[in-house]
Amino acid sequence: MRERGPMPMWWRLLAAFLVFAVFVTGAFIWQSASSITAQKIENELFALDPSVSVAELESKGYVNNGDVVEGWRTVGVRDFPWYVDGEPNSAIEKFVADARSGRESVVRLYTQSNQRVTAVRVLWYDPYVDATWAERTPQIDGDEGRGATIHYDGKGQIREWWWERGALITTDKRFSRGIEQTESDAVACGLYAADANTSCTTLVLRHQPSAEGLVRNDDSIRQYDEVLYVRPSE
Questions:
Q1: By CB atoms within 10 Å of each CB, which of 120, 151, 169, 224 scores lowest?
Q2: Mapping DSSP to helix (H, G, I), strand (E, B) and coil, where does residue 122 land?
Q3: Whole-structure pTM over 0.70, yes or no?
Q4: How many Å apart are CA 105 and CA 37, to the nearest integer?
Q5: How far is CA 89 from CA 40, 107, 145, 160, in A?
Q6: How far apart (Å, rounded) are the C-alpha atoms in residues 104 and 98?
Q7: What is the Cα–Cα distance from 137 to 220, expressed in whole angstroms?
Q8: How many Cα atoms are found within 13 Å in the side-chain-facing hemisphere of 28?
Q9: Which of 202, 203, 209, 214 shows the shortest CA–CA distance to 224?
């Protein structure tokens, strides 16, 4: 019986290349499936039923952001919408820690009013997005003018999508990764059931409007901050 000779070098190289190609292709497919993109977020929100329930949202990984409160709160000289009675949640705390540290992260939130879902927000800290933004020139004697300051902050912003009753009302709004934290008494935070002597924490998202609004010469570069979370202090 004729014995086989040693395997040719080219065959070994071909086999090694095929194994490497399979590995690389598998890794690429896995990364593509698990990666976050703006289009994936929008597709996810468009797929929600307009009358989606709390149970359905929680099964998809959404967490309670608190109850919607009519009115506004002020930090410094800026106003923003706010929420109360949110419960401490590790998903929100992890997102805050990740964003502040520059690590990519996503958190999915829902808010309620009278025990019904009123809105859904998806926040994505994207460490690779260009963080150039524009700040409108402060008013002088009541004349705001059209001037602005351009900030070149390298890479990394929080990006937001806001869904209400089957429609996207905010797409890719940008915020600083430096989430602001303020402390005040519980009544000031809207935690009316709590003792007024109990302090609370408000986490504020600072809006960073796109500099593209300067080209259009419109009001899109006005800053509209938002509350991320209100909770009793530890």
A1: 169
A2: strand
A3: yes
A4: 12
A5: 24, 11, 43, 19
A6: 7
A7: 13
A8: 6
A9: 209
Report the DSSP beta bridge partners of residue 125.
Answer: 105, 158
Classify 149 as helix, strand or coil.
strand
Q: What is the pLDDT of residues 142-156, one digit of tens each?
A: 555 556 788 888 899
The secondary structure element, H or E, covering residue 63 is strand 63-68
Residues with Cβ within 8 Å of 79's Cβ and at least 6 positions away in sequence, in order, are 72, 73, 225
pLDDT, tens only, 44-62: 999 999 989 889 999 999 9
Local structure of 58: helix, strand or coil: helix
Dihedral-angle region of residue 193 (phi above 0 means left; psi in -120 to 50 means alpha; beta otherwise): alpha
54: left (phi over 0), alpha (psi -120 to 50) or beta: alpha
Tell me the CA end-to-end span of the chain in Å, nearest whole number: 82
The CB density around residue 130, as the number of other CB atoms within 10 Å, is: 15
CA–CA gap between residue 213 and residue 195 (Å, rounded): 45
Per the DSSP assignment, residues forming a β-bridge with 202 are: 182, 230
Residue of 211, 214, 137, 218 whose CA lies nearest to 174: 211
Look up residue 31 and give its amino acid. Answer: Q
For 72, which DSSP code? -
3-class secondary structure, 32:
helix
| Banded model confidence at residue 43, pLDDT cuts 50, 70, 90 | very high
Assigned token pair, 153: 């902050």
**Residue 151 tokens, joined:** 């900030």
Amino acid at 46: F
Letter for the amino acid at 170?
A: T
